[in-house]
Structures are given as structure tokens and as C-alpha cells.
Design a protein that fits this description.
alpha/beta; Rossmann fold; 2 domains; 6-stranded mixed β-sheet; 4-stranded antiparallel β-sheet
């Protein structure tokens, strides 16, 4: 297991290291970024006075709105230096384009090398990538580059296609998956229906992307339990985004995704952009280190998380990021109760008759949130609606409205726009 030396240092030593990197980043932005040069000038910011992590509070935050309005102004290099163009998935608005240099691709590969290593990956491993490498998707390329740099085997099957996945497992004997975790129960169902003994396969672990598999206390949530109760594999959670260009990946302890301090500075902010206390949840706010093409300074990701600073049993002393509680923009106020989509998914994943779903939130004429869940069930009875609503009342104190569909209809609705990820959450409130 490869652990960069900085990740074994004390938190005080890590802070001093990051403050040196911060100075380099600020000088780079002052010289090359039209957006940040304008920001520094308009707010009378002298970057020479920003010498500590705490001093970052003197600088305004950057938001997704800024990226959408001034996308080109964030570019710090000539266009002929851009090797690859990627876009965000645009789940909460218009996609944003990022230009990546050759150095940025090397940085991305290094990030995933140390992230896979964090998840106990060695050169003896062989991963089946159930993710797309097309459609300007950064994550699929990042996993490929990282595994290549680490020296592990790679099998690019892409998402979906259960039959192909098992044919590939039989032929190539991969040791792990990189996949959206909600696809694993579909593989289990397919294997059961086709007399495939998946527990006797070569797969022994899965790197889970895009969806939480743990509760804030690090116990497995319903989706995580559903997987390991049926398939004897080790699950590793990883959290990343295009804007971060960095991943927070669990080690074998399963106690949060490890921070790579050579890659990124992380703050946790409240609604007023003040830092929260260590035991409080806050919005993940990042400053890139070492990015050439489009580095970001104090970018608010919209993701709400807890963080943990105790040393880990794996030997790393870095901060650990807890599971995403929810996205700030996706908060739902239903009959006086505050909800985030992950808590809704957790209830739905617990109910056996539910194969898939789409959660839709809208506002009525009084501006009050309303929640509708379109549920995919092959076999549902008159009692199904009551059972589902009773589960919601027991777990979340409130119940949504329900509509029942065939699972194939839900799949069509989730993918009809040709996006890179199946849509499970639709916020109609943002349309008006």
C-alpha cells in the first residue's frame, strides 16, 4: 500500500505544507486567471496578505453560478495547451466546461493512483470499469489513468449490460468493480435469474461512485447492506467531482474518504460562508492545488458533509470526509420536515418490491414543497402503497405521494435524455 509521506505527517505539518502550496496557487491565479484577477482587484485583496489557511476567509467564495456565467474567464492557459475538454454532469444547472492540460492529466492520474492505493489496490488487481469513458466524462478517464499509473489491470465494459458484465468476469477474472453501487443489486438479480454463482466469481471488492453506501456514522446504509448481504465483497466509497479534480476514497477501515493534502485545500462552511466547528456539518469548499488549466479558489461544491480529524488505523493522519448528507440546493422541506435525497433513497432501497425509482420535488401555488416518487415495481398490490408510506412515516416522519410504473418504464425515464448517469432526482422548483 502506497501512502504519500505528507499523509503520514501531523495535522500541523500538513497545514504548513498546504500554506506553502496556497502561496503558489494565489500567485498563479493572480498572473493567469482573468476571473480571479478581477475578483482580487474589485475586493482590494492583496494576495501577499493571504499567508494561512484561515486567511482564505478574506477571499469571496466561488460558486457554480460564477462558473456558468464566466466559464472562459477561469481558463489560465492558451487554448492550444488544452489536451482534453470535460464537462460537469449539470445535475443542478447547465454543464460547465473544463479545459485540462497535459500536466492536469498527469495530476489526475496521480490522484487516482493514490486513491486506488488507499482502497487496497495493488498491481495484482484487475478492475472492471462499469463507467463511461466518453461524453466528456472526467471520472471514467480518471479511473483508467489512475489504474494504468498504478499498474493494475483494466477491463472497460462500460455501464449496464448485465450479460456482458458476467461474460467479462468469466473470461478475464477481474478482482474488482468501479461502479455506481445501485447497479450491483441489478447484477445480483440477473445472476440469480440465470443461475450464475456470483459469490464464486473472482470479484472481491467494488469502488462505489456517485451514490452513498454509508450513513453519517459510517455504518452501511440500506443500499450498502443490500449488496453485502447478498454478495461477499468489500465496498469502498469514493467521492469526487470535476471541479475538485481530486477524490476522497476510503481505506479498509471504512471511516471516511481520505484527504490528499498535496492535491486540494478543503474548508467546511455554513450558509454565511463561515467555518463550521469540527463536529458540525458544512458545505465542502475547495481550493485546487497544482491545477494548470482551470484552478478554482474557495469553490463551494454544494455538498454537505461531516469531517473527521482523528488519525486513521491505516497510518494516514489526513482529514477524512464523511458521506454526503445531501446537496444544499436539493434540500426539501416537506410538511415541516427537512429532507435530503439520500435519506429518501435509503428508505426506498430497503423495500423489496421496489426495483427503481425517480424522486421529483416541486412547489405548489403557495410555494410549499411537494414530493412525488415514481416507483418501479413488477409486482405490487393494493397494500404496496400503504407499506411504502408507512416505512417513510416510520423513518422520516412524513410520506410522499406515489405513482407506480413498470421498472422498464422507470429505466426509460431515467435515461431518455441520453445523460451519462441515470436520473433519480428531478427538481422542478428550479424551473420557475
Amino acid at each position: 500500500m502506497f501512502i504519500p509521506e505528507i499523509e503520514k505527517k501531523s495535522l500541523e505539518e500538513i497545514k504548513v505544507f498546504q500554506e506553502g502550496k496556497l502561496k503558489d496557487t494565489l500567485e498563479y491565479l493572480q498572473k493567469n486567471s482573468k476571473f480571479y484577477k478581477t475578483m482580487f482587484s474589485s475586493h482590494d485583496i492583496n494576495i501577499n496578505e493571504i499567508v494561512s489557511i484561515e486567511d482564505l476567509e478574506k477571499i469571496p467564495v466561488t460558486t457554480k453560478d460564477d462558473l456558468q456565467k464566466y466559464n472562459d474567464d477561469f481558463l489560465c492557459v492558451d487554448h492550444n495547451e488544452i489536451i482534453d475538454y470535460v464537462t460537469t454532469s449539470g445535475t443542478m444547472g447547465e454543464p460547465v466546461t473544463f479545459g485540462m492540460t497535459d500536466g492536469d492529466l498527469d495530476r489526475l492520474a496521480y490522484n487516482e493512483q493514490i486513491s486506488f492505493s488507499c482502497a487496497d489496490t495493488t498491481t495484482k488487481d484487475k478492475y472492471q470499469l462499469l463507467v463511461t469513458l466518453d461524453k466528456r466524462f472526467m471520472a471514467g478517464m480518471a479511473y483508467f489513468l489512475g489504474l494504468r499509473k498504478l499498474g493494475a489491470g483494466i477491463i472497460r465494459t462500460g455501464p449496464g449490460l448485465q450479460k456482458l458484465q458476467f461474460e467479462s468476469i468469466k473470461r478475464f477474472n477481474p478482482t474488482g468493480f468501479v461502479t455506481v453501487p445501485s447497479f450491483i443489486p441489478k447484477l445480483i438479480s440477473y445472476a440469480s435469474a440465470n443461475n450464475i454463482d456470483y459469490n464464486e466469481s473472482s470479484i472481491n471488492k467494488a469502488i462505489c461512485i456517485g451514490e452513498p453506501i454509508r450513513n453519517p456514522d459510517f455504518s452501511l446504509n440500506q443500499l450498502g447492506k443490500k449488496i453485502v448481504d447478498n454478495w461477499d465483497i468489500k465496498l469502498y466509497s469514493t467521492y469526487a467531482s470535476t471541479e475538485m479534480g481530486t477524490a476522497f476514497t476510503e481505506c479498509k477501515a471504512g471511516k471516511g474518504g481520505h484527504h490528499h493534502p498535496e492535491m486540494i485545500i478543503v474548508e467546511f462552511l455554513d450558509e454565511n460562508n463561515n467555518r463550521v466547528k469540527d463536529h458540525e456539518s458544512g458545505e465542502v469548499t475547495i481550493t485546487n492545488l497544482g491545477v494548470e488549466g482551470m484552478p478554482l479558489l474557495r469553490f463551494k461544491t454544494g455538498d454537505i458533509c461531516y469531517h473527521h480529524i482523528e488519525p486513521c488505523e491505516c497510518g494516514r493522519n489526513t482529514m477524512r470526509l464523511g458521506p454526503v448528507i445531501g446537496r444544499k440546493q436539493q434540500m426539501i422541506k416537506l410538511k415541516g420536515t427537512t429532507l435530503y435525497p439520500p435519506s429518501i433513497y435509503d428508505v426506498l432501497n430497503e423495500i423489496e418490491c421496489i426495483e427503481n425509482y425517480i424522486v421529483e420535488v416541486s412547489s405548489n401555488e403557495l410555494g410549499i414543497d411537494e414530493l412525488l416518487i415514481k416507483v418501479g415495481c413488477s409486482h405490487h398490490s393494493k397494500n404496496s402503497e400503504k407499506k411504502i408510506k408507512d416505512n417513510f412515516r416510520a423513518k422520516l416522519r412524513v410520506a410522499p405521494e406515489l405513482q407506480f410504473f413498470e421498472p422498464t418504464d422507470i429505466v426509460y425515464m431515467q435515461t431518455k435524455d441520453g445523460g451519462r448517469k441515470p436520473i433519480t432526482f428531478i427538481d422542478h422548483r428550479n424551473l420557475f
